[in-house]
Specification:
Substrate Binding Domain Of Dnak, Chain:A, Domain 2, binds Broken Fe4S4 cluster, 6-stranded parallel sheet, Rossmann fold, globular, 3 domains, 5-stranded parallel sheet, binds iron/sulfur cluster
Length: 653
């Protein structure tokens, strides 16, 4: 076990009380968690500044971040080339993760259409037809299957198209699209963009940081408006578009008297299949025979977020709590698929006799049990896992300690539902949102998303930042582990309006929504792109996404996927702030380009801050700047002084 120099108190590591309790238990049990290793293994300062290159065997070459232009690599690559290449490869990896996930969803969709996958079906016909129409596919008088085949063929181009523009850019506001065309960054298929990104960042190819940055943007856009968007659309078509539902979260959702199975990862098919298996009478009977009151399916990380709003499945916690949940001893099985699965989950599970199963051929863990999920017979895998979990329940020898904490919240706000809830069934649309931004009741909209990271106090920055934003009348939309941080803090309920500024509170109370809207998994950031696109198309807030009073933030990010997401938001026109660290050397040309130069070209830009208060200040300052440029800053001043006007909002809506 790696020994941290000093034992850090659990309350200094995380604000999640359940995780604190389990850190203390793990220490008593002698079990090492990733929090311990984060303390013991300090990050390399040169790597953290992205000032090293190992792209060939003339190196690795290291540049001093404190004097970055003093030296160059053996080949002559300077700090801007080295940092831009490293950044580009992070974007390529993040884009590959989302687009490969999307491709898997598309494979499943094709299987359903061809009839080779029989356990799933096209559940949401309305969404299928809406997607078809957005791709300019004829729907009138046509059969569902005919439309589905055409949708499949169009969406496949998102990956394979070698030239021209991918089909989903039809959804991009015209002026934003024009700015991409001018810069030459409208994406082709993701396979082509990722391939070119990797080629251009190899030794001795593209050595102009500005030119590399164009391909970085193009690759990231192939993710946000391509692979990620396909993944979200197909999930909705096959499993249903989420609608708001009350869900219970936090580790208290584990039940001492039930067979607890945690599903962790990113692809919804695993948990969807698990739900079908767990409902089978023979399986239920088998569980009952062991004395268990039932089978308790629980989500974690993004798999859980994907299905919590479709099925009301409880959620135990985010990325930083996955090991901690095992420390309860109450988890009979943890099953995983792809992305954000720590290798040591297998080891921690072993300490508590928990059955740990990998299920995806792309993601095995050395020594771990692997039961492959085949979409043609998914329940063969999930039945086996549940039976193993029931056996573990029957023979539970561990002393169990389940944290008592739970919180309830409302989740499942797709961009379609936001349209409906704001406008009502007869006049669904984004006009009420835009109107309330124009009149100043809502100051702007912020996306707060992304991971947790053991190098930041878990959940702290997410919760403090969001509280500060809603206090300042900024409506917050969320995805990923950030959404779960706010859910555990009990702030995803309409009652959270009590913490909002007066204008935002009034709008939320009138409509009956929380000021913090959870949109789903990290791949569902595409829903936020669709929402900002709708805001532009609705009118009154400028002509491109870059004109909107909006901002984004990933306060505790850790994954390359987060960098890809950040870059597609920046290239789409959104000011995007990252917290705790940023993979760049300060005061270099590449940093200047990302943090200022891109905005001058009509895109968004990157920002960085350490504290949630500073993140909020940067985002609010940007939103106010956009309000000034739109000429709507005066409206807000008037509204803030006009209490009776605010009170009449309900009557006017
Ligand atoms: Fe060094 Fe250049 Fe090789 Fe990178 S590509 S390792 S900077 S010689
Ligand atoms: S799981 S990418 S830690 S959001 Fe999507 Fe959470 Fe970040 Fe993984």
């Amino acid at each position: 076990m790696a020994k941290p120099k000093e034992i850090i108190r659990p309350e200094d590591i995380t604000t999640c009380e359940s995780t604190q309790q389990m850190i203390a238990k793990a220490r008593r049990d002698g079990v090492e968690l990733f929090f311990d290793r984060a303390e013991a293994v300090k990050p390399c300062p040169i790597g953290a500044s992205s000032a090293c290159c190992k792209h060939c065997s003339m190196g690795p070459c290291r540049i001093s971040p404190s004097d970055p232009y003093k030296h160059v690599g053996v080949c002559g690559a300077n700090i801007d080339t080295i940092a831009a290449r490293n950044f580009g490869r992070m974007v390529a990896a993040g884009t590959a993760a989302h687009t490969d996930h999307g491709m898997a969803m598309l494979d499943l969709f094709r299987g359903v259409i061809e009839g080779t996958v029989i356990d799933f079906e096209i559940k949401d016909h309305l969404k299928l037809f809406e997607v078809a129409e957005s791709l300019e596919i004829e729907t009138k008088g046509r059969e569902v299957k005919e439309v589905a085949i055409d949708v499949y063929r169009e969406l496949e181009k998102t990956y394979t198209q070698v030239d021209g523009e991918i089909p989903l850019v039809k959804r991009v506001p015209q002026k934003t699209l024009e700015s991409w065309r001018k810069e030459g960054i409208v994406p082709r298929g993701a396979m082509r963009e990722i391939m070119e990104m990797m080629h251009r960042t190899a030794m001795g190819v593209d050595q102009d940081y500005e030119n590399i940055t164009k391909q970085i943007s193009r690759t990231a856009l192939a993710d946000g408006w391509g692979g990620s968007m396909v993944s979200t659309d197909i999930s909705d078509i096959l499993f249903g578009t989420p609608v708001p539902v009350e869900v219970t979260v936090d580790m208290g959702v584990l039940k001492e008297d039930q067979v607890n199975i945690i599903v962790h990862g990113h692809e919804p098919i695993l948990l969807e299949a698990m739900i079908i298996s767990a409902a089978a009478p023979s399986i239920k009977e088998m569980a009952r025979e062991t004395g268990a009151k039932g089978i308790n399916l629980v989500g974690m990380c993004c798999s859980g977020l994907d299905v919590l709003s479709r099925h009301g499945i409880p959620h135990a916690g985010n990325f930083s709590s996955t090991e901690a949940a095992l420390v309860t001893g109450a988890v009979d099985a943890m099953t995983v698929d792809v992305q954000c699965i720590k290798q040591d989950l297998h080891k921690v599970a072993g300490c508590y006799d928990t059955v740990f199963v990998t299920t995806n051929y792309r993601a095995k863990i050395e020594g771990a049990m692997h039961i492959e999920l085949d979409e043609h017979d998914p329940m063969n895998c999930t039945d086996q896992i549940i039976i193993k979990a029931i056996m573990r329940y029957k023979n539970r020898g561990q002393k169990i300690e389940i944290p008592a904490r739970t919180a309830k919240g409302v989740h499942g706000f797709s961009h379609e539902y936001i349209k409906y809830m704001l406008g009502g069934s007869f006049r669904g649309g984004y006009e009420p949102l835009n109107d309330n931004i124009i009149n100043g009741r809502i100051r702007g909209v912020a996306g707060v998303v992304g991971c947790t990271n053991p190098r930041s106090k878990q959940d702290f920055s997410h919760v403090e930042l969001v509280k500060e934003l809603i206090k300042n009348d900024i409506l917050v939309v969320q995805t990923g582990c950030s959404q779960m941080a706010l859910a555990k803090a009990g702030l995803t309920t309409p009652g959270a309006s009590a913490l909002a500024g007066p204008g935002l509170a009034e709008v939320c109370e009138t409509v009956g929504i929380p000021p913090i809207l959870g949109l789903g998994a990290c791949v569902d950031n595409s829903r936020i792109l669709m929402a900002v696109s709708e805001m532009v198309k609705t009118g009154g807030l400028g002509e491109s996404i870059a004109d909107l009073p909006v901002a984004g933030c990933a306060p505790e990010w850790m994954s390359e996927k987060a960098i890809a997401i950040g870059q597609y938001f920046v290239a789409s026109g959104v000011y995007t702030v990252f917290g705790h660290t940023f993979p760049i050397t300060q005061q270099t040309n590449f940093q200047e380009l990302l943090f200022n130069g891109l905005e001058e070209k009509g895109f968004g830009k990157w920002g960085f801050a350490d504290s949630p208060q500073e993140m909020a200040r940067l985002m609010i300052t940007h939103i106010d700047k956009k309000r000034r440029e739109l000429g709507i800053d005066k409206a807000r001043e008037r509204v803030l002084m006009d209490m009776s006007d605010r009170r009449s909002l309900a009557a006017n809506e």
